Amino acid sequence: MVDAIRRWQRVRRAMGVEDHVYVDRLVSMLKAHGEDRLDRIEDPLEAVVFALMIELLRELDRRGGCERTQPMK
Question: Which burial class, exposed, middle or buried, applies to 33 when counting CB atoms under 10 A from its CB (0-12, 13-18, 19+)?
Fold first, then answer.
C-alpha cells in the first residue's frame, strides 16, 4: 500500500491543480489503513481498492447516506 501512496503522490504533481484536493483525499484514505493488516490480501491492487471502499463507506456513514449494518460474525 505504501508503494501506491508514493505513486499517487508523484502523479498528483502531473495532474491539474483542481484535482490535487481529490488526490490528497484518496492518499489520506489509504494512509488511514497503513497500519491495518491488509497485507493479508496478497494482491496489492485488491488491498488498495478494499481500503478505499472502507473509507468511502465510512464517509457515507458520516454524511448519513449509508445504512449502517452490524458486522458479520
Answer: middle
